């Protein structure tokens, strides 16, 4: 499952990132790392960018870049209620 396939309110854990080195480093700097829990807050209209929460950090990520982030299902994270 890829990040761009999650709907607002859904959450998962990052399993891997399959991207070229530049994108991988940028995503890593933004907090996207294997094992991290994330939640999709909202998506812009017309398949636009995703608003994602990783811990206490909110990030807006392009749909194209979100395809590089592979996820595994996760039970609801107790510290991050769905807004």
From TrEMBL:
Organism: Methylophilus aquaticus
Protein name in UniProt: FeoA family protein
Keywords for this protein: Iron
Pfam families linked to this entry: FeoA
SUPFAM superfamilies with a match to the protein in the record: C-terminal domain of transcriptional repressors
Cited Gene3D superfamilies: 2.30.30.90
Domain Ferrous iron transporter FeoA-like: 1-73
């Amino acid at each position: 499952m890829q990040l761009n396939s999650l709907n607002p309110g859904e959450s998962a854990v990052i399993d891997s990132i399959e991207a070229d080195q530049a994108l991988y480093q940028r995503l890593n700097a933004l907090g996207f790392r294997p094992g991290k829990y994330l939640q999709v807050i909202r998506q812009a209209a017309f398949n636009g960018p995703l608003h994602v929460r990783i811990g206490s950090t909110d990030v807006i990520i392009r749909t194209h870049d979100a395809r590089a982030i592979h996820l595994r299902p996760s039970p609801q994270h107790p510290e991050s209620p769905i807004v």
